[in-house]
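in:
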């Protein structure tokens, strides 16, 4: 009997379709005003460590080759490819492929949308840090 009661309780505590997971009788988390940044509103595309590193490197360099980025970030071909593709799909970076002699050359650059998203991300992080310190 106790097992069935626990199962019913577990089912009733599952997330609602709206995604809130709140138990009865507990006050909801205060909503942040537009002046208060929330960590949950960070750009998830940029926030991942390797993608943030890629965008940061491209923010201070006009272009970087695949091999330069790989060396700078000390990562593997596969890891860099996956994260660069995610940034490219979000239109944050542009990829230009060419040949230097017979060798393929891939160069990346930050797009205007990518620079804007990066600046917004940095401003958001700075605001979060200020709020934590105060």
């Amino acid at each position: 009997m106790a097992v069935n009661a626990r199962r019913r309780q577990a089912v009733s505590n599952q997330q609602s379709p709206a995604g809130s997971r709140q138990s009865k009788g507990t006050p909801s988390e205060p909503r942040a005003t537009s002046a208060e940044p929330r960590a949950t509103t960070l750009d998830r595309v940029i926030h991942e460590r390797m993608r943030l590193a890629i965008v940061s490197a491209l923010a201070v360099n006009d272009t970087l080759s695949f091999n330069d980025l790989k060396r700078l970030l000390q990562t593997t071909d596969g890891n860099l490819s996956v994260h660069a593709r995610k940034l490219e799909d979000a239109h944050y970076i542009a990829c230009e492929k060419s040949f230097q002699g017979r060798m393929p050359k891939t160069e990346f650059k930050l797009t205007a949308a990518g620079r804007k998203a990066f600046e917004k991300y940095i401003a958001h992080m700075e605001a979060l840090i200020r709020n934590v310190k105060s």
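note: The first strand starts at residue 64 and ends at 65.
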